[in-house]
Specification:
The complex is a heterotrimer of chains A (about 775), B (about 280) and C (about 160). Chain A is of the alpha+beta class and about 775 residues long. Chain A has 19 helices and 28 strands. In chain A, the strands form 7 sheets. In chain A, strands 3-5-1-12-9-10-11 form a 7-stranded mixed sheet, with helices on both faces. Chain A has a 5-stranded mixed sheet with strand order 7-15-14-13-8, sandwiched between helices. In chain A, strands 18-26-27-28 form a 4-stranded mixed sheet, with helices on both faces. In chain A, helix 9 (about 315-325) runs parallel beside helix 10 (about 355-375). The model of chain A has no long low-confidence stretch (mean pLDDT about 95). Chain B has a 5-stranded antiparallel sheet. Chain B has a 4-stranded antiparallel sheet with strand order 11-12-13-14, with helices on both faces. In chain B, helix 5 (about 90-100) runs antiparallel to helix 8. Chain B starts with 6 loop residues before the first strand and ends with a helix. Chain C is an alpha+beta fold and about 160 residues long. In chain C, helix 2 (about 90-95) crosses helix 5. Chain C is globular and about 45 Å long. The N and C termini of chain C lie far apart (about 45 Å). The chains are: A alpha+beta (about 775), B alpha+beta (about 280), C alpha+beta (about 160). Chains A and C meet through helix 1 and helix 17 of A and helix 2, helix 3, helix 4 and helix 5 of C.
């Protein structure tokens, strides 16, 4: 029986449910010291002086350094940033000095003793401020606060102008996908041990190979003497792709002190310095006709990247948004461009979805706006605008982006069936007419995203987000299998997923397969786990490597059975001539023979039961789906409750439905959280106001609904599994469904748009104004 | 986050605790469950030189029948208060509201006395005690004991009338077994402090209404209470819920929204109280 | 300013010398080397550090080690049977995919043990409210709720399954 497609319980779980997981802070080496940061309390200031005297005098403090104590000072993978602040700070939280002490209590005390004197400078917090004439410059050397720009191409401008001129109607609007924080439950952590012959680093990272390569070049240590181990990682969500100062400082200080150095970020620090996401301001014009057909789209994005963009990810986010800005709709004329703007805030970079949630928000909101303007049901407007099912592969008009496959009407019809749309509408109209009931709104999101990064040539400009992923399948002498992958999962269940794929191809029990990842010394070079790429690409690599190994295993078994390899089959781990179960060879004998030359046929070399494959996808995949959100709104307090949430995902082939559901549910809740709860806020002096989980409202179980999920299956042609990826879908699709539902509930008050997060106060102000008027 | 250094005294009796307070004065802080104090220490917003742990003083943790009132020892945990059969029968408002404090872990360790003495106007229990006209019993190192009406106990934000050498030892809550009651807590996440909360106990036209997070201290909705006493309907009376209050502004709510919430929640509380 | 304390962890009492300011979570992780209890925030909001103190769930980041002198602390490491059998809540999390990255999991499991001790057959809403002080960023909570329901329906210890 095939494992792929079944609900297999995870191989990862036994350690994690018994407290035997090994996260970075759990790794213990004798003599480990603790590193802690002195961070800026100013958003923009010259550093007048840094006095380390008292801190250095504290017993138990081993060293305190500033940027002047570093040989190489430029932070790799960052835009105009030094490892520690040099002369000037540009956001609250920026590291200025670093302390190493015998334990974390002494380190915390020492941080308090470092005296920093500042000369405050004028600052900018929003793109509007940053782009104003005479605005203070975040980077004076740049001469502008625009650090990267993709202007509208003239050819597209002309096409779109024509489309707008011919269109019966048009609307202009603005959106803001606010700054939200990934909040991995484990903040950043690193342990570096630079011994006489080798640097070993344990890090809470999403890309151990990329980090190893970066450390190697920055520190001048050859890669064979630089080992990065990714132990268990407590979530990443895109924020552990970046190169942070601690990743370089811990190794440097370990070498200087001759002792292991550990840094474990606090939650407060995590909010202040770990990259957060979104923060795109959109200016949109949409042209359409009276039947709800969308005819043209202009999109201009101002991406607020904070003080120090992360390269290349920060610039990549609006690129992905632009690519996907037409969603799953056939819009004949599109012009899209963006400006990346520096502000005196925490750097902005990838967060689950990474540029695509902003795109789905744009596309799904404009469809609803068109529905509102034309008075046509939003589900119907979607059906009228979907890319027809027979037009795949579909190229969007404004970019070299080719949607692989899709059946958008099917997903929407399934969602309408699942939610019983006709009854929901009746219920909504009844409630909204009855003042004693909560207001009710129904919101759709028929989203599409881009995943499985990526085909050769498409993303080389994005540095480490390359194309391939690797898997090595190795049969042990006892006939069990070890798989090593360059993918670097941190919660996705990839060990289970890859073992399932291998079990099918090796015809072996999944219990006899172990998957290892996250160690640059023992796994093949990989790109890493991000961008919903692992099932599609590492899965394909595992499949192809398993097929090669199995072919050789059949040759060995055939030799032992004195049969033709083509006549063999393997049933429950036993090789036999097809239909002849009386004489069998178990995997254990085949495995032993594979490493015993005397037992091998002449043309088969020892070690043949081992294969490493670097799979390269032939194109991006485009997971899609249809979500329906039902909200209830307290008419008196403005409190919004998600009463029901229906999801229909189409990620192509599902390898493990149990894990796919987990990805979808978790993603949807994160998207709901952006719509209703979460926002990073800075005051006008650049002080962050949401630096704890008390102020930053990540929801708990008590605050969110269950998801009712469904599925359609439109495989991708770009890998043999047909898998498109599911890691980010929920986050990408859910936010606009919630906002559309709230706008739907408030439509009777003339509401066509509402800012996120949709706090009760915000809704109350709208209701209050409407009632006043 | 790491607390600053401090010395630590574990008191076995109230007298030991009071002696330690007398010795160290302003530099000492009492530690019961620690769920108000330890977070402040970790953020280094408070740095006492001595903590006097009263969490294990056996004779400060009790709930007993005092005739016309229920007496609650200051170090009784929220969990015990919320589950107390005596309180559920005699002062259901307090038992119920205490079941909504923080989260289960906080209720398992946090104490009613700690919550009251911390004097946070965003906490639930201070407003409940103010609504109920509870009496707070404080003892000092000199052995003297005084009874303070809950309405006079809270001086300003995080400040009470307790002297540095004084300790809250008992909370006396009048029995109101037949009164209508309601506790309305409005927040965005269940574990959060109330953006606004309302504790109401109603006996005919006589009502005690405490407001959470509507000023620097827990306050009574006096205008509403007076309107009810004067014969106003609950809806009319609730319209005065925010009169005379000075609510704070934060990321969740501006003062005008808090005033609105107070009116809405008081109306709901009066409606619910009437049904009980 | 050191204090001598005797704290029983998972049934094993031990005497240690600690600074009064030492948080219980650091005592467990660094002095007892029980690293299953995690730290996820600074403000008692996330619940990753949840343990049981004298059988009641508590956030060990908000308790001083000295406060538990003479008390019994139970951590995730003590939950499975000595024969390797899983506690029903552990098995429920496994069966229902109640965890992804696993960082919040020990706290979630200990908080769930606390819920079931008070209420052996909680409703979905009671489970959700019972976990109001624990934050998970991966699962969206739905399968955690199912895991607790699974445990409520299977109150006996579960033999350890095939490990990964």
């Amino acid at each position: 029986m095939s494992m792929v497609g079944t609900r297999v319980i995870r191989k990862e779980d036994p350690n994690l449910i018994t407290g035997r997981g090994l996260f970075t802070d759990d790794v213990s080496i004798m003599g480990t010291t603790i590193m802690a940061f002195v961070r800026s309390t100013e958003a923009h200031a010259d550093i007048v002086s840094v006095d380390l005297t008292e801190a250095l005098a504290l017993p138990g403090v081993l060293t305190v350094i500033t940027v002047d104590d570093l040989d190489a000072q430029d932070l790799p993978g960052a835009f105009m940033r030094t490892v520690l602040a040099k002369d000037r700070v540009r956001f609250v939280g920026e590291p200025i000095a670093v302390v190493v002490a015998e334990d974390r209590y002494i380190a915390a005390d020492a941080v308090e003793l470092v005296q920093v004197a500042y000369r405050p400078l004028p600052l900018v917090i929003t793109p509007v401020e940053a782009l104003a004439d005479g605005a203070p410059l975040v980077q004076e050397a740049l001469g502008t606060n625009v650090c990267f720009e993709v202007p509208w191409p003239q050819e597209q401008i002309d096409q779109v102008d024509q489309a707008f001129a011919a269109a019966p109607r048009q609307v202009s609007t603005t959106f803001h996908s606010q700054r939200v924080h990934p909040v991995p439950m484990e903040p950043s952590a690193i342990l570096a041990d630079w011994g006489p012959d080798k640097l070993t680093v344990w890090a809470s990272t999403q890309m151990p190979h990329g980090l190893r390569n970066c450390l190697s070049s920055f520190l001048g240590v050859p890669q064979h003497q630089c080992r990065v181990i990714q132990p268990d990682v407590g979530g990443g969500f895109g924020a552990k792709v970046q190169q942070y100062p601690e990743l370089f400082l811990a190794p440097i200080l370990s070498k200087r002190l001759g002792r292991p150095v550990k840094y474990v970020q606090t939650r407060t620090e995590c909010f202040a310095i770990m990259c957060s996401g979104r923060d795109q301001h959109h200016e949109i014009d949409v042209a359409f006709d009276n039947d709800g057909h969308i005819l043209g789209l202009r999109s201009l994005i101002h991406a607020d990247l904070g003080a120090y963009p992360d390269l290349p990810n920060s610039f990549g986010m609006p690129t992905l948004t632009n690519w996907m800005s037409s969603g799953c709709y056939k819009i004949p004329a599109i012009v899209a461009g963006y400006k990346c703007v520096l502000t005196n805030k925490t750097p902005q970079s990838a967060y689950r979805g990474a540029g695509r949630p902003e795109a789905s928000f744009l596309a799904e909101r404009i469809v609803d706006i068109v529905a509102g303007e034309t008075g046509i049901d939003p589900a119907e407007v979607r059906l009228r605008n979907f890319i027809p099912t027979d037009e795949f592969p579909y190229k969007v008009p404004h970019a070299e982006v080719y949607y692989d496959s899709g059946n958008y009407p099917l997903s929407l019809q399934e969602a309408l069936r699942l939610c019983d749309y006709e009854n929901l509408k009746t219920e909504r109209d009844r409630r909204n007419a009855d003042p004693s009931e909560k207001l009710m709104g129904i919101g759709f999101s028929t989203w599409v995203e881009i995943a499985a990064f990526g085909p050769r040539g498409a993303l080389e400009g994005f540095g480490h987000i390359g194309s391939y992923e690797s898997a090595q399948v190795k049969i042990q002498p006892d006939g069990t299998a070890m798989i090593a992958t360059g993918a670097s999962p941190h919660g996705q269940g990839t060990h289970t997923t890859l073992a399932m794929i291998a079990a099918d191809e090796l015809h072996m029990s999944i219990d006899n397969i172990t998957v290892r990842s996250g160690d640059t010394d023992t796994t093949p070079q990989g790109v890493g786990t991000m961008g919903s790429r692992t099932a599609a690409i590492a899965g394909e690599a595992t499949k192809q490597a398993s097929i090669k190994v199995f072919q050789n295993a059949c040759k060995i078994a055939a030799h032992m059975l004195e049969a033709n390899p083509d006549d063999l089959e393997c049933v429950d781990g036993l090789f036999q001539v097809k239909g002849v179960p009386s004489k069998t060879i178990p995997w254990s004998q085949v495995g032993w023979a594979g490493l015993s030359p005397t037992l091998l046929p002449d043309d088969i070399p020892a070690g043949c039961l081992e294969s490493t494959v670097f799979a390269e996808p032939t194109g991006f995949t485009y997971p899609a789906g249809a979500y329906v959100c039902v909200v209830g709104i307290d008419r008196d307090t403005g409190h919004v409750e998600v009463e029901k949430f229906y999801s229909v995902d189409d990620c192509g082939t599902v390898i493990n439905p149990l894990l796919a559901e987990g990805q979808v549910q978790g993603g949807i809740i994160q998207g709901i959280a952006q719509a209703l709860y979460e926002e990073m806020v800075w005051d006008s002096a650049g002080q962050p106001l949401t630096t704890t989980l008390m102020d930053y409202l990540a929801p708990a179980a008590s605050d969110v609904p269950s998801i009712i999920d469904g599925r359609t299956n439109t495989p991708t042609p770009h890998n043999s599994l047909g898998a498109k990826g599911i890691g980010e879908s929920g986050t990408i699709g859910s936010t606009p469904a919630v906002v559309n539902a709230v706008v739907n509930a408030l439509a009777q008050y003339g509401v066509t748009n509402i800012a996120m997060p949709i706090s009760p106060q915000r809704v109350w102000r709208i209701l209050n104004q409407a009632q006043g008027a | 986050m790491i607390p600053p250094k401090f010395d630590y005294v574990k008191a076995r009796t109230a007298d030991e605790a009071l002696a330690a307070l007398a010795e160290h004065g302003d530099d000492a802080k009492l530690l019961a469950g620690g769920h108000s104090l330890i977070p402040l220490l970790k953020l280094r917003l408070s740095s006492p030189s001595v903590l006097v742990d009263i969490g294990e003083i056996a004779d400060l943790s009790y709930i007993s029948d005092g005739g016309t009132h229920v007496a609650i020892g200051a170090t009784t945990t929220h969990r015990t208060v919320a589950k107390s059969e005596l309180l559920r029968a005699q002062v259901p408002l307090l038992a119920h509201a205490t079941g909504e404090v923080g989260d289960p872990q906080v209720r398992n360790r946090g104490t009613i006395g700690g919550s009251i003495a911390h004097g946070d106007p965003a906490s639930d229990q201070p407003a409940v005690l103010v609504a109920l006209d509870a009496v707070l019993v404080a003892r000092s190192a000199s052995g003297s004991q005084r009874e303070i009406p809950a309405r006079e106990f809270f001086r300003s934000f995080l400040e009470t009338v307790l002297a540095p050498d004084e300790m809250l030892v008992e909370i006396r809550v009048p029995k109101v077994p037949t009164a209508g009651w309601s506790f309305q807590k409005f927040n965005r996440r269940a574990q959060d402090w109330a953006i606004v909360g309302v504790a109401a106990v109603v006996n005919g036209t006589s009502a005690g209404i405490g407001l959470v997070n509507m000023g620097g201290t827990p306050v009574r909705a006096t205008a509403t209470e007076q309107a009810l006493a004067g014969g106003a309907s609950p809806a009319e009376a609730a319209a005065h819920a925010a009169d005379g209050t000075d609510p704070p502004s934060d990321l969740n709510a501006d003062p005008d929204y808090r005033c609105h919430l107070a009116r809405v929640l008081v109306a709901r509380a009066l409606l619910e109280a009437a049904s009980r | 300013m050191q204090r001598e304390v005797t704290i029983s962890v998972n049934g094993s009492p031990r005497t240690d010398t600690v600074e009064p300011r030492l948080l219980l979570v650091h005592y467990l992780r660094e002095q007892r080397r029980l690293t299953g209890t995690h730290i996820g925030c600074d403000t008692s909001n996330c619940g990753a550090c949840t343990v049981l103190i004298d059988g009641l769930s508590a956030k060990s980041c908000t308790v001083l080690a000295v406060q538990t002198d003479g008390h019994e602390v139970s951590t995730i490491e003590g939950l499975a049977g000595s024969d390797g059998s899983y506690h029903p809540v552990q098995e429920g999390f496994r069966q229902c995919h109640g965890l992804q990255c696993g960082y919040c999991t020990p706290g979630m499991i200990m908080a769930s043990v606390g819920i079931l001790a008070d209420n052996p057959s909680p409703s979905e809403s009671e489970i959700r409210m019972g976990l109001e002080g624990n934050i998970c960023r991966c699962t969206g909570y739905q399968k955690i709720v199912e895991a607790v329901q699974w445990a409520a329906a299977h109150p006996q210890p579960q033999p350890a399954g095939q490990g990964g």
